[in-house]
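Allow me, if you will, to draw on your knowledge of protein folds for a short while. I have a record of one protein: its chain in single-letter code and its fold written as discrete structure tokens. I remain grateful for any guidance, and I place the record below:
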Amino acid sequence: MLFHSSAAVCGALVALAVSVTVARSESRGVHANAVVEAASGDAVVGAASMYNPFRPGKEEGGPSTASGERYNPSAWSAAIKTSLRGKFGGVQFGERPKFALVEAVGKKVIVKINDVGPLRPGRVIDFNERTMRHFDPSLERGVIKDVKVSPLSGDDWTPGPVG
């Protein structure tokens, strides 16, 4: 009798584990689709470059971002062109950063828009170092052309690659 009860409990636990694993894998796919749906609409296309105020020779940017956060080269973040500030929810000091879906060279990533800047002509976004390395691992390009940047509504996004 004890053996049958143990087997039944074990079977129930295996079934639960399988259903949780399936649910998690399905939610990842839904998340990717949700990102694309939330990003439809007001996309901006242009060139992207990189900024890091802690690297020698950089003339723009600073250690504090427009949102008040400190620049972090290891985060998934970016600065949007100052003239696009309104399109991306303001990006003001003391306010929560905004989020965007960035698509380029066959890759997609969610970035936190926590800064603005007077970018050079033709550029719409400046990536921090981690984000730029996602699109250009060797950092040899310097500028990535035809980058599509779509604002995401809400503030509950997790920055990083979208699969």
